[in-house]
Structures are given as structure tokens and as C-alpha cells.
Amino acid sequence: MSAPFKEYQSLLNERSIIIVVVVVLALMWSVGQLSLMAALVIGTVATVLLIQLEIKRRMETLQMRRATAREQRRSSQQGAMTVRANTLNRLPSPVLLIDDQQSVVFANQAALDLLGSDIIDNDVFLYLRQSAFVTALDAVLTGKPAENATIRYTSSNERSFDVTVAPVPASEDGTAGPQAMVFFYEVTSLLRTEQMRADFVANASHELRTPLTSLIGFIETLQGPAADDTAAHQRFLGIMQREAERMVRLIDDLLSLSRIEMSRHMAPTTTIDLCQHINSAVSTVVGQAEERGIKFSFTAAEGVKKVVADSDQVTQVFLNLLSNAGKYADRDSTVHINATPHHSGRHVLISIRDEGPGIAPEHLARLTERFYRVDTARSRKMGGTGLGLAIVKHILLRHGSQMDIKSQIGKGTVFSFRLPIPGVSAQESSETKL
Ligand code: ADP
């Protein structure tokens, strides 16, 4: 019932009481029955009724005001809660609030995305079953000191989180019992980096161990069964030299990689002559490639001259890509090197195309991983370390560039990348990566 209607209704009652009293008094006076006593009694009753009505009306107004104030307080509290919930929803880390019945009373958006939108009001143990979590939640909800055990949660899509449980005290007005806040800290990329580091150490050790084992084997043979076999000596020493050289190449590549990684965030500022660098790289690898009948053809478009690059590192890029072409291209074929202005007008596009067996599409994405090879035996036979393309990738990243690899089985492979021409800032060039 609305307030104006209530007021109207009470006014009507007052009026009707006054009218009734006046009519009764007038009637009694007209028939000569109105004594002073009767008038006093009727007047008193009427006044009491009016006072009662007034009190009732004031009480109602007071109650209405209280109800309005309560409503305002509740809505402002809800507003504050909405602000808190919105803030938590913006957190990229999943957060849950669990009540003393182990039910999920709140889950931010990240938690809903991780555990499912039906988690609210459900038992949290349906989603997190690890015994360490059960123990931690129980301790927090019963006020016991919590153990500092790391609770690891791995989702179905292989995301890993470190989960912590913290107490939320019961509310002062007693409307909410003790609760627990569950916080998920994502460690997926951290674990991946750790795994990559462990794999790298294992791969590097394995790559070094293979030539070392072979060297030790030959030394033992030379000391024992082949001690007097002078013909075998020359053969074995030749193999030992190749194995030792392989170890040197591997260590050189590992050192190069770590040097490049150290300078990763310092974009090069020196200007170099591109054609001169390509020609000098070609003359370094041509001798080895000629053994397989491989020729190099270099074409530079007009105007292609200077680029912003680190001289030593760019030389290493060309040496690695050209020696790969020399190793893997078909015998008696030609490797085409092209340098043309990039359509952006701010870069030179360089491509190295060989006429080789090509690389199957499933290998392309992984080619620049350390120690990844399509054919390990062939790579080893050709003296490869499995680090050449990883080095190229990291050098190009430092130059704000990326390598594009296109290959057709039976036809050959094209490696292309671009380098900035002088006058273009490193930032501009990295914004328009290939
Ligand atoms: P590697 O020392 O083994 O050559 P890289 O990192 O330089 O190591 O190359 C990785 C792998 O990519 C090689 O083992 C080879 O299988 C493949 N590869 C590289 N360049 C070519 C190419 N031009 N044609 C075919 N395969 C290639």
C-alpha cells in the first residue's frame, strides 16, 4: 500500500470521527439531551481516538522511514559487493569463495572459465579433489593453522596452477560464517620454461656425449687391439679429428646462442653493406658446396645496398642458411639468393631458395627449435649441430625480423626474412614483422 494512500485513509478516519462527534452532539443538543457530562465524555472519547490515530500514523511513518533506510543500506552494500565482484572478475587469476559447507559461493570470471560456469553453489571437492587441498580447506574453515603445502592443479587443457587457501573471517553481524578464499596462480609458462631448460641441458649433454664416447672408443682401440696397426692409426685419427671438430662446432654454436640471447633486447644500430656481406658469406661456403656440385647465384635489385644490422650476426645468418642449402640441396643444383626492396619501402627482403628435397609441412613449425632435425642421421653425417636455424631465428628476432620458411617436397625450400634500411627506427621495423 502506498504512503499517500495511507495518509489519505488516516485523514478520512479523523474527519469521519470529528463529523460523527459533531453530528452526535448536534443531535443531542437538538433533542435537549446534551448534558455537560455527556459532552465531556463524548469529547474525551473522540480526543482519545484522535490521539490513537495520530500515534498510529506517526508509527507507520517511522516504520516506513526505517524500511526505506534499511533498503538504502542494503542496496549500497550490494553495490559495494558488486564493485568488489566486478574487481575480482577483472583479475586474470581464478578466485573462489567457499562457505563453511564447502560450497562455492563466489567464483570470478577466470574461475568460471577454468572450472565451468555451473560451479556456483556446488561442492568445491567436485572440482578440486587433491588431498592436500581437502586438508588445507578443512584447516582454514575450522580455524586450524594451515600447512604451507603447494597444491598443484592441472586443468584438462594442460594449464597448471599453484593453489593457495586463505581464511575469510565470519561477518560481525553473524549473517555469514567463516569462509575460505581459494586463489589460483598460473605457472604454466614457468613450468614450460623449466622443462625447456631441462630438455636443453639433456640434449646438449647428449650431443656432446656422442662424439666423446666415440673418441674414447677409438683411443682405447689405438691403445689396445690396433696398437701396432699403423694403417688403422691414420683412419682412426681422421675419424677422431672429425668428432673433435664436431664438438668444437657444437660448443661454438652453444656459445653463439647464449651471446645472442644476452644481446636480445639491444636492437642493432650499425649500418652495413648488405651485398658485400652476402658475397663474403658465399665465398666462405662455396668451397664445401662445390664438392656436391652446388652453385650460388646472387641477385640484388637496384637500390638495395645498406641495411641496419649487426655485421657479425648477419654474417652468421647467411653462413648458416647458405651452408644448410649447400648440405641439403640436391647435387648439381643452384642456390638462388635474392635481395629486393620490401613493399613497405622500409626494409630489404632477402630470400635463399634451394633446389633440394624440400621439408614436409609437419616439420616447418619446429625447424627453429634447438636440436630439432628432420633427419638426425643425415644432419650428423653432414656435420650439423641442430642449432643453426635456432641461431638464425634469435639473431633475426634481435633485428626485429622473423624468418619465413616455405617448402615444397621434391622442389626445394625458400628461407626469407627482411632487414631494415637506414632511417627507420627499430620500433617501427618491429611493428611490421613478417
Ligand atoms: P643442422 O645443423 O642439423 O643443419 P639446423 O638448425 O641448421 O641444424 O637445421 C635443422 C634441420 O632443418 C636440419 O637438420 C635439416 O633437417 C633441416 N634443414 C635445414 N635447412 C634445410 C634445407 N635447405 N633443405 C632441407 N632441410 C633443411
Shape designation: elongated
Distinct small molecules: adenosine-5'-diphosphate
Taking all Cα atoms into account, the compactness measure Rg is 43 Å
Tally the helices.
12
- What is the CATH first-level class name of the largest domain? Alpha Beta
Taken together, the total number of domains comes to: 4
Query: What low-confidence regions span 5 or more consecutive residues with pLDDT below 50?
Result: 426-434
Largest sheet: 5 strands, antiparallel
Ends apart, CA distance between termini: 71 Å
- Provide the spatial order of strands within the biggest beta sheet: 2-1-5-4-3
- CATH-derived architecture of the largest domain: 2-Layer Sandwich
Question: The CATH topology of the largest domain is what?
Answer: Heat Shock Protein 90
Concise structural overview:
By secondary structure, this protein is of the alpha+beta class. The chain contains 12 helices and 12 strands.
